[in-house]
Amino acid sequence: xxxxxxxxxxxxxxxxxxxxxxxxxxxxxxxxxxxxxxxxxxxxxxxxxxxxxxxxxxxxxxxxxxxxxxx
Length: 71
Description:
This protein is mainly α. Helix 1 (2-36) packs across helix 2. The chain has helices at 2-36, 40-67. The chain is built from 2 helices and no strands.
């Protein structure tokens, strides 16, 4: 839910492109950290961050697709 509430203000402040790029970098970074941890609590936190990235990216990508004119 945090991702859905945070997306619009972040996107308004830094734009679609930067929001999507930061989101994808966050997702990649979280998977990198997840692959190197053996701690359950750290893995849970990193998975929460990964889900946050997925929600933000999905909202931005869908909104952008709807704004682009179709040929």
